[in-house]
Amino acid sequence: MEPGTLTIVGTGIQLVGHLTLAAQAWIKEADKVLFAVADPVTAKWLQTLNTIVEPLPYNTNNQRRRQTYQEMVECILAAVRQGGNICVVFYGHPGVFSDPAHEAIKQARQEGFHAQMLPGISAEDCLFADLGVDPGRNGCQSFEATDFLIRRRRFDPTSVLILWQLAMVGNLGFFKEDAPSPGLTILAEVLGQHYGFKHEVIIYEAATYYPVCQPLIKPLPLSQLPKAKVSEISTLYVPPQAPATLDYEMMARLGISL
Ligand SMILES: C[S@@+](CC[C@H](N)C(=O)[O-])C[C@H]1O[C@@H](n2cnc3c(N)ncnc32)[C@H](O)[C@@H]1O
Question: Which domains are present in the chain?
Answer without folding.
Answer: 5-117 (3.40.1010.10), 123-238 (3.30.950.10)
